[in-house]
């Protein structure tokens, strides 16, 4: 059995030798043919490549020069049109126009004569607007502050300034030209220009049938385009030719890509005064049509030479195959196991030497065949033993893998339990965080720990006490002081009110500058919510006495007023998913706001209904009927002077009622 197997292996080896010999035959034939074919193709290819290269450079130079000339001409016309606009705008800065009416007449005449001018503004030497005129509106003496506007700041140091281009509705480019008047601390005329007229310089007559053009600003945005150009307003800063032009390194780029990623021939010219660049481009597929035609002719010529070379090489190679055939037949005999056969080749070259090597190999195989069978049997026994050992190792690995799977499943169960617990904790934290935006921390904790607390913030109707308070003289204060000092005053003011709001467990509705609105009896209900609101307002007034004294020492004249009303309102969350507020809507909030407006410095004004509830606990006095904005009938009101000594203070919070 082993001997037969060994013989089969030798036969297989010799068959592979035979096949390799056949491959060698085919390889020699192919080498001779390939040598002749390669020589012919090389000569034709080199000649065609040189000719194509010369024609390619000539064509590219001609096209880029033509595109460059058109870009140069279009850039000159654009710069000339902008200069003409500047000259026409300078006309309205004449020294003889001294009155607003004179400027208005000049501006109206310029708007009628120059369609590209959309709007004109007259700024004084301090950057405040004196006149604004467009084709649809006019504004005189608005005093709008443009002192930090680039159109004002750039013009102060020079007579004319160009503002960066802007876009209306993402596709309508515009820019501003500012011209300074001639007198001391001169006025400035600012003209808003519609840049749509630039497309007149990029028509098909200027670009050609297969080319397109566009103008970009210093940020790479398209200001104007031809009919086949990229979309107006689109940023082309990522295109290689645009990026090279914006770098201002004067590097010439003949090739680039269009907005769809196609290759184009490109030429650009800069407009330094405006900071713009104009591009004239032509798709490479159209520009290089002559080169493609020449490539086609060269390919046909190479194909013809290839056919001729293959025929000549085949005839020459066939004459070389006679000794190779004899060598192949001898290899077939050795492959069949006939080690006594000898190959006879008499060519006097390498093939004869190869036949001798085959003959010596056959003799060596015949000598070693006798002891080879014993070695094969020994190797077979070793292989069987190794297979048994591998089988035992495989069983052990399977057992370990099963144990590892069980441990993995257990770990997954633990992870699932931990994820559920973490998710519940995060949900609880999120609920408390949302409630603390409206309520005192202890009230938020109470609502969050109760069952069904989410429904507490749903829209519902309830009787509430509304407290409205703000600072007297705050608007004048903000106009005459620095913003940082105003922010410091607001921080001190909000800190004092916020502490007392949380103390009496009110719901902070909103901050609006110095105005603060506080709700009582929502969402937490209290039987004594009106008394809590009034007692909190009295303490706020006392606290603000100390603050206003401190502010007065710093030179600020501010007072504190409070308005309180009682009535029914609709209460709940308003806003959208990412921004929610808890608020009340109803006439009671308007009444509290109007009472606050009527209150003087350090005065607490309440409705008569509120006064009737807290009268046993306060010192107060009635106020004449008030005519309040938004109310058809006079409103009865009262002033809270102080909280009576010994009066019962507000009790602790009642239990949450749903």
CATH architecture name of the domain at 441-643: 2-Layer Sandwich
Counted beta strands:
20
Going by helix content, strand content and strand pairing, the class is alpha+beta
Strand content: 15-25%
CATH class of the domain at 441-643: Alpha Beta
Number of helices: 15
Helical proportion, percent range: 40-55%
Contiguous runs where pLDDT drops below 50 for at least 5 residues = 652-658
CATH H-tier superfamily of the domain at 441-643: Nucleotide cyclase, GGDEF domain
CATH structural fold name of the domain at 441-643: Alpha-Beta Plaits
**Main β sheet profile:** 8 strands, mixed
Average pLDDT over all residues: 81
Backbone CA Rg: 48 Å
Query: Globular, elongated, flat, extended or rod-shaped: what is the shape?
Result: flat
Report how far the terminal alpha carbons are from each other.
96 Å
Description:
There is one protein chain. The chain is 52% helix and 21% strand. By secondary structure, the protein is of the alpha+beta class. Among the domains are: 92-198, Beta-Lactamase (2-Layer Sandwich), CATH 3.30.450.20; 441-643, Nucleotide cyclase, GGDEF domain (Alpha-Beta Plaits). The strands form three sheets. Strands 13, 14, 15, 16, 17, 18, 19 and 20 form an eight-stranded mixed sheet that branches. Strands 1, 2, 3, 4, 5, 6 and 7 form a seven-stranded antiparallel sheet that branches. Helix 1 (2-91) runs antiparallel to helix 7 (289-318) and helix 8 crosses helix 9. The radius of gyration is 48 Å and the shape is flat. The protein starts with a helix and ends in a 15-residue tail after the last strand.
